[in-house]
Amino acid sequence: MGRMNVFIAAACAIVLLILTQYDRLAAAPQAIRDAWQTQTSDAKLRPPVAPAKETADPFYHSGPVPSLVSDEVDALNVTATRRKLWKYVRQLYMDYPPPFAELQWPKDWPTMPIYRTELIALDREEIAAASPVLGQDEFDQAREALLMLNDALPSYYDYARLYKGRGYVMSAAGWFLNRCWPVGALMLKQLGSKLPIEVWTKDEEEYEETSRVVAELAASGIQITAHKFSDFLDSSEFPRDYNTNYMMKALAILFCSFEEVILLDADNVPVMLPDNLFANPGYMKHGMILWPDLWPNSYSKTLRDIYNVDYSFERTCESGQVVVDKRRHLDSMVLANYFNWYGPGMFYKLITLDSMGAGDKDTFGFAALALGKNFSFVTTPVELIHVWTGEGIEREEDQVIGRGQMGQRNPFNETEIMFMHSHDPKLNFQVQDLPFDLTFIHSTAKATFWPDTETLEYKLWNGIRWVECESKTLHVKDDPREACKHVRDRTSAMAFKLKGWGES
Predict the structure, then answer these.
(1) Are 185 and 225 in contact (CB under 8 A)?
(2) Residues 199, 226 contacting (CB under 8 angstroms)
(3) Phi and psi at residue 391, to the nearest 5°
(4) Which one-letter DSSP state was computed for residue 448?
(5) What is the pLDDT of residues 178-192, one digit of tens each?
(6) What is the pLDDT of residue 219?
(7) Fewer Cβ close by (within 10 Å): the C or N end of the chain?
(8) How far is residue 219 from each of residues 213, 257, 448, 464, measured CA to CA in Å?
(9) For 456-504, what is each residue's pLDDT tens digit?
């Protein structure tokens, strides 16, 4: 009996010790918790393993990922968790460099003729002739290496604590684009968006100005925050030819805090409310929506064969707007970043044959296909919307094939335009030297805007007015063009015409 009492007392003491250590860990400084996690994990990076998927719904996790720390403490650890994810991803990219060091490219390969929008697909023999030829041993080695990379991609469930909810993400880079993206953010507000926005910058230098613009917009009632990649990665790690202006859009999707994301390019202006895209049947089925670019697909035969990607998808994609569910596509986004990391001179050639528009835009869709996944694709071609002058005619500069705003369709009703990707000209009146009587939004023979073009045009110019006049950060003092005065005059005239509208 005495021994039994001793055994019970010892067991109670052990339980009490475990509970005490648990409480101490939850309240411990981050450095201690990090040390504990390091001691309980392998020193060597290894592919994370997802928990067993629930049979009722193979894509969604029913509850929070188990953690030894409370949600409040974990919220303070977002940067550390991002750093952990980046460390894993960065090491992955170093451990699996492209297995194509000796690729021989045809001397006279065909490049994509500009804006061949009348074509559904390029001639497959033409694509094959433009693709590098690998011997069987080289092909087998390349295929094995890239499929090993696929197997090592991180699991969403290991980093699920980083993500929650839905929102918009934008990538900003410097003074030029800081005068563009606020117009899109303000349009979202005027259209009634209820979702938050994150704006991502490369480093402290870019963040300094962008964060001031974000603070001004937040003061106006927009749910918006600024972030910088340099909080958890060193930009000196990037490859020498890494173009941060567009390559970082894939990084912004990966590291933003939203589980479900709508990426908007800095020069993209929604003209219909995109908040409900997460309810689109195509999105609900595949977890990703992509929109077309202006020319046919030109994935190289080499890369198609390596990943066993067939020719069923024969268009090319555009990354002015991308909708992604990271629960289903975190691995796709890591692979898309890999294609961008080694993009110039390598995957941009293999994915698009280095043709028109080579860059990040086709990496999202191809990454999904390379992993045996799919995406919803808006099949109606881009509508080029030419800018009108004050006389109601097309600008002379726009009477060239390929110039104009890219009108991208509403996936629910493809007769309607949802996004106006203002790639040419961009809505920067200080750099573009644009006249102040231009009309950007109007119906065309092939598509219509909704609800009505004059109201949308007024809202667009309200955003331009905020940039030119109301933002203390962006307003140009002693502006020789007097942009603020001209924009105010324009919005006042538009408000008068709309009857009963006054400047807010």
Answers:
(1) no
(2) yes
(3) -85, 0
(4) B
(5) 899 999 999 999 999
(6) 97
(7) N
(8) 10, 21, 34, 17
(9) 999 999 999 999 999 999 998 888 889 999 999 999 999 988 876 555 4
Q: Are 414 and 383 in contact (CB under 8 A)?
A: no
N-to-C CA span, the chain: 84
For residue 323, list its beta bridge partners.
262, 289
Sign for the CA dihedral angle at 29, 34, 39, 40 comes to positive
Q: Collect the ranges in the chain with pLDDT lower than 70.
A: 1-76, 101-124, 128-130, 240-245, 354-357, 393, 396-402, 445, 450-451, 500-504
Among the listed residues 375, 382, 329, 338, the one whose alpha carbon sits nearest the alpha carbon of residue 360: 338
Of residues 224, 218, 219, 222, the one with CA closest to residue 170: 224
Assess contact for 311 and 351: CB atoms under 8 A: no
pLDDT of residue 25: 38
Partners of 300 in the beta sheet? none
User: What are the distances in angstroms from CA 364 to CA 97, 175, 185, 251?
Assistant: 19, 27, 23, 11
CB 404 within 8 A of CB 387: yes
HSE (side-chain half, CA atoms, 13 Å) at 393: 4
Q: Give the Å distances, CA to CA, from 464 to 178, 317, 458.
A: 12, 28, 10
Closest CA to 427 of 180, 63, 59, 214: 180
Tokens read off for 236? 């000196």
CA distance 107 to 114: 20
Contact 228, 204 (CB under 8 A): yes
In DSSP terms, which residues pair with 166 in a beta bridge? 260
Please state the three-class secondary structure of 101-161 as a single string. CCCCCCCCCCCCCCCCCCCCCCCHHHHHHHCCCCCHHHHHHHHHHHHHHHHHCCCHHHCHH
Q: What is the pLDDT at residue 246?
A: 72
Q: Can you read off the two tokens belonging to residue 128?
A: 């094959």
